[in-house]
Amino acid sequence: MNHNRGDGVRGCELGFTDYSMTIYSCKEVSARFGHISALDPAISSTVGSVSGAFVDEYSAGGETYRICRKEVAIEVSNGQVIGTAGGSPGQLALDFGVYDTRVTHTFANSARFGDENSSYLHAVSCIPYFGGTNQSWLTSVAGSSVSGPHRTIAPAGGTVEQDVPGTAQGT
Q1: N vs C: which end of the chain shows fewer Cβ within 10 Å?
Q2: Which of 41, 49, 27 shows the shortest CA–CA distance to 82?
Q3: 150-164 pLDDT tens trace
Q4: Structural domain boundaries, residue 25
Q5: Rounded to whole angstroms, how far apart are CA atoms 170 and 59?
Q6: What is the pLDDT of residues 91-130, one digit of tens each?
Q7: Quick one: 108 and 51 in the same domain?
Q8: 151 in the same domain as 80
């Protein structure tokens, strides 16, 4: 679990805290949630304090972010609330990604994504990992936006690896 604190020009007192969480459904498949503004109270009490867990710092958009990491093993159940997003001023996003280490993409320049353990090399659409009505609903809204309809070309979740060597197509 990562705990991010935005400091930068706003200062520590005016910064915000958000969390990221990785959930494993099995050894090979994980889902990563980012910009969780508040953890569910039961999870928060299990995690406890993350003070003193500083591991990295970076700057983006005029802000400096400190990343603290704390490894915890918490069992979560299907449908259990893990937290909420969008509760911090200026933080209206929720990042979500699914990764399957049984899938490895071969990009035109794989070195761009780090070593062979880079999660992006194993990124997949979440749709096939859901079942029943959840999968049907996700398929029906995949690619939807305020400016257009859902994706109509298979696969519904799109593809990750679209590189064509020697062209501008791809990542």
Answers
A1: C
A2: 41
A3: 777 888 888 888 888
A4: 2-101
A5: 27
A6: 777 888 999 999 988 888 877 777 756 888 899 999 999 8
A7: no
A8: no
